[in-house]
């Protein structure tokens, strides 16, 4: 999936997060969205998957050279982020079965396979609200990376992961991103953005 921002900007009352952004995110490219806390990484990423609209300018998504509207684009975008809520009252397996009803996993993987990939075998029948924050994070990352989406957006992907978890994430990303587009919002570029050869600092556009 390709994204083209033209003269794009996003404001909140009394605050310009970014403006005058001209940016082409080519299909299959890997971008790290860098910056300190509050610099606008999440705001930018939310515009990419349609959770926030632009205040000015335009954003066009295209798939295989064909422009698609935001609704069709959203069906081809998967994201994992601190503000992406899991359904806490379901068990891990129940949640994955529900998720599969909305969107099939890639390579014909099933809920039980995802449990294994997320290293949650022992917790499969536990309610999500009783998982540790690192376990929830592994589940979110697997949901995104084992989707069939053409654009993967990961906001702070290693938050709540311990050192072993960070290594697990790096291996997962390396194996599963394939030729898909990738946007990562990160304070820890070495751990999280290691696959990204393109960088955006939102503060360069304030
Ligand atoms: N819905 C909102 N309404 C008003 N202001 C907002 C809203 N969302 C974000 N902001 C403001 O926009 C700025 C950028 O926030 P954002 O969450 O994008 O930063 P970030 O770089 O992702 O930060 P962090 O690394 O702490 O997650 C901040 O000043 C924040 O307070």
From TrEMBL:
<dbReference type="InterPro" id="IPR027417">
    <property type="entry name" value="P-loop_NTPase"/>
</dbReference>
<dbReference type="Pfam" id="PF00005">
    <property type="entry name" value="ABC_tran"/>
</dbReference>
<dbReference type="GO" id="GO:0016887">
    <property type="term" value="F:ATP hydrolysis activity"/>
</dbReference>
<dbReference type="InterPro" id="IPR051782">
    <property type="entry name" value="ABC_Transporter_VariousFunc"/>
</dbReference>
<keyword id="KW-0813">Transport</keyword>
<protein>
    <submittedName>
        <fullName>ABC transporter ATP-binding protein</fullName>
    </submittedName>
</protein>
<dbReference type="GO" id="GO:0005524">
    <property type="term" value="F:ATP binding"/>
</dbReference>
<dbReference type="InterPro" id="IPR017871">
    <property type="entry name" value="ABC_transporter-like_CS"/>
</dbReference>
<dbReference type="InterPro" id="IPR003593">
    <property type="entry name" value="AAA+_ATPase"/>
</dbReference>
<keyword id="KW-0067">ATP-binding</keyword>
<keyword id="KW-0547">Nucleotide-binding</keyword>
<feature type="domain" description="ABC transporter">
    <location>
        <begin position="3"/>
        <end position="206"/>
    </location>
</feature>
<dbReference type="InterPro" id="IPR003439">
    <property type="entry name" value="ABC_transporter-like_ATP-bd"/>
</dbReference>
